[in-house]
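::Amino acid chain::
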Amino acid sequence: MSEAPLLDAGAWRRALSAARRPYHDGYYAMYTNAVGGIVTDPALMLVPADDHVVHRGDGVFETIKCVDGAVYALDRHLARLAHSAETIGLLLPVPRDALAGLVVQTLRAGGRRDALARVIVSRGPGGFGVNPYECPRPGLYIVAYALPPSFMDAHPSGARLRSSTVPVKPGVLATIKTCNYLPNALMKKEAVDAGADFAVAFDERGFLAEGATENFGMVSSDRRLRVPGADRILSGITMHRALELAEDLVRAGALAGIETGDIGRRDLEGAAEILVFGTTPDVTAGVEWDGRPVGDGRPGPVQRELNRRLQADIRSHPAMRTPAFG
């Protein structure tokens, strides 16, 4: 085995720059409270190895979308971030309004009017043990990076779904957005290995839960929009906004109602439509589940109308948009 060289700071920086890869082109800017500033060189977008978020997954996060120069649902995402942090006994490093400002500044430094912002609040650096009290203060990392196209724009025929064998997270851990995403990563691996787009989890009672990063719902044969209850899933920002938008469809008679509660496999087998909700999927049509067609195997009218309304909401609803660019 060849001997690893001992590098000084200058040699380390040169080595990092030489290690640049094509995927770094999608990393636009990063803020960290470790230095209190923003960088745009991907080689400098680093997290300390002794931050507990690295070796323990001890932290919380949100992924927020900026479209046409404005951040969508920023207040709702930061409210959920604060709730997740509070649940695990983690204080936000800055007040929420200051955090919103840092998100906007980081996106602006990245220079792209269409981007994603990942906001991570960690237990912080301080050691390699498991005791969270060895960390003097929380860490804060905000990264602006490439926004992929909405799923239905890239795949207009809809998504293939696969039932997951990965157990859902227990208790309160299922309802908060922590950085311990190993089960989620394994679910995504299952989907990719099976040639599917999304994996669908079921709880130990056999009821619909969630995906790797998505919520799911269904439209029944009697035109009722149904989503799972909140006790075993992360309460999705996109899903809840879509439900608010769906109220107009109820008033117009396009839907018979909106329901929240247990959804079993038999319910899904008889569904007219299965819907996928998320920050990047928006409202996506699930057209195949475990190799069987959903409904007639094509995107349905509720998905099309809800996604159309959501796209309009993202681009034009003043109360849901926080300007990041002039």
About this structure: The two ends are 55 Å apart (CA to CA). DSSP finds nine helices and 15 strands in the chain.
